[in-house]
Write a structure and sequence with these properties.
The protein is of the alpha/beta class. The chain has helices at residues 15-26, 33-41, 46-56, 63-74, 92-97, 112-122, 129-152, 165-178, and strands spanning 3-8, 29-32, 82-86, 104-109, 156-160.
Length: 182
């Protein structure tokens, strides 16, 4: 059985941690959208320069570029057994344009207050209260409609992300068994 999942959540929700744990548990590949875009931004190509410009200005990379990069990457043999996609799609337009077959979408639900605490603790230079607030505003505007999109398709599983990592992981595994459609 092929297993293709998406893990979404606001910045600081722990989505990358959970996506990586899920991929390891299922024995499938883990594809982190932000890493894919970062490596693309390092390419000396028109696409690479466009991605780099968007990232340096703090904006989301254009939807068509992001979807194309994901499609190109997912065509690789590395994803034949399945994949856990981390942090994509980030806009409704990306979700609508993305045609790769997905089984379920997991949403790691964390409050803005908890996200802010986690991001400030992380200690990265760009994690200031002002930048975190801006990222969360963009997240709510751009990414929350994606949740509605997958909810209407019956694909979204919401998980409480304000608990210990292992408890969240166990709930995810349990919810995938409970929500399986064979």
């Amino acid at each position: 059985m092929k297993k293709n999942f998406i893990v979404l959540g606001p910045p600081g929700s722990g989505k990358s941690t959970q996506a990586k744990l899920l991929a390891e548990s299922l024995g499938v590949a883990w594809l982190e959208a932000s890493n894919l875009l970062y490596f693309l931004s390092q390419e000396d190509s028109e696409k690479g320069r466009a991605v780099k410009e968007a990232m340096e200005s703090g904006k989301l990379v254009a939807d068509d570029l992001t979807v194309e990069a994901m499609d190109d990457q997912l065509a690789s043999v590395n994803y034949k057994k399945g994949v856990v996609i981390d942090g994509f799609p980030r806009s409704l337009e990306q979700a609508q344009a993305f045609k790769f077959p997905i089984d379920k979408v997991l949403y790691i639900d964390v409050s803005d207050e908890k996200d802010t605490q986690r991001l400030l603790k992380r200690g990265r230079p760009d994690d200031t209260p002002q930048t975190i607030k801006k990222r969360l505003i963009i997240y709510h505007q751009e990414t929350e409609p994606v949740l509605d999109f997958y909810t209407h398709q019956g694909m979204l599983i919401k998980v409480d992300g304000e608990r210990p990592i292992e408890l969240i992981h166990q709930e995810i595994l349990k919810s995938l068994v409970t929500n399986r459609q064979d």
